[in-house]
Amino acid sequence: MSKEQKIQQGRKFLRADSRKEFRTKENYKPDEKQNIPAPPMEKPCLESQEKFELVPLEDIKIKSVLLTKAIKNRSTHRKYSDAALTLQELSFLLWSTQGVKEVQDRGGWSKRVVPSGGARHPFETYLIVDRVEGLDKGIYRYLPLQHRLCRVTQRLPESDRLIEATNGQRQLSRAAVTFVWAAIPYRTEWRYSIVAHKDIALEAGHICQNLYLSCEAIDAGTCAIANYNQEVIDSIIGVDGEKEFTVYLAPVGKIPSE
């Protein structure tokens, strides 16, 4: 395929053309319309994996920041201090990006602090934890329905491997914690079939913007990363790369004093 054909293919993904086919062609009918049960809202934590409590929302004490100020000050930060995040701060960032407000078990959907087409919320949040008070180093996954963490592994990837896997993004080696968002596309495909994927891509942006704004309240910074080696990052967080795969990354760290 030529460069021009690839560009046209990418532009077609951004357009709404496929929605006409979705509405009119019987073979594109979503699984929801075929009475297939909805997929789980949250990936389960295995019995062999340890769970960790986070600070409940009602106990989180974070300084108030005017929304207008947070939006104005929002910026990408690639330099971080050696300071750790507190467990309260991490709990706040997780709630701010995937916090659950309402759950409808019968319909298999949840309302969260970020929008999602059809309330499907296809993303799992993985954390590469280096410096968080009260947590050992390792890779964790957020359980939003429980507001807990599930430890995936105690092994951290080598900094050089992370830098190489993100084509030289050295800020990952200095982050206190790196957020990795992996999509489980079928959660959205179940309702929207062939038009699910543009929605999924848009929703990654909703989540990451909330992280940027929330960092303003804890004197931290982040840097959205979409340039990465798919196979390597998927391997690091332990996903199969087919039914679940990395879409976006964001290292977080305290902003150094000037």
Quickly describe the structure:
The chain has helices at residues 3-14, 18-24, 67-73, 87-98, 159-165, 186-192, 196-215, 230-237; strands at 51-53, 100-104, 109-112, 123-129, 138-143, 148-153, 177-183, 220-222, 245-254. It has 258 residues and is of the alpha+beta class.
> What's the total number of strands?
9
Mean pLDDT: 94
**Structural class estimated from helices and strands:** alpha+beta
Query: What strand line-up does the widest sheet have?
Result: 1-6-5-4-7-9-8
In CATH, the architecture is: 3-Layer(aba) Sandwich
CATH superfamily: NADH Oxidase
- Rg, alpha carbons: 19 Å
CATH class placement:
Alpha Beta
Strand content: 15-25%
CATH topology group: NADH Oxidase
Give the count of helical stretches.
8
Whole-number total of structural domains: 1
Q: What is the chain-wise order of helices and strands?
A: HHEHHEEEEEHEHHEHE
Q: Report the biggest beta sheet as strand number plus sense, adding barrel if it closes.
A: 7 strands, antiparallel
- Return residue spans where pLDDT drops below 50 for at least 5 consecutive residues: none
Distance between the termini: 50 Å
Assign an overall shape. globular
Percentage of helical residues? Answer: 25-40%
Descriptive notes:
- By secondary structure, this protein is of the alpha+beta class.
- The chain has one domain: NADH Oxidase (3-Layer(aba) Sandwich).
- 31% of the residues lie in helices and 20% in strands.
- It contains 8 helices and 9 strands.
- The strands form 2 sheets. It has a 7-stranded antiparallel sheet with strand order 1-6-5-4-7-9-8.
- Strand 5 and strand 6 form a beta hairpin.
- The longest helix is centred in the last third of the chain and has 20 residues.
- It is globular.
- The termini are far apart.
- The model has no long low-confidence stretch (mean pLDDT 94).
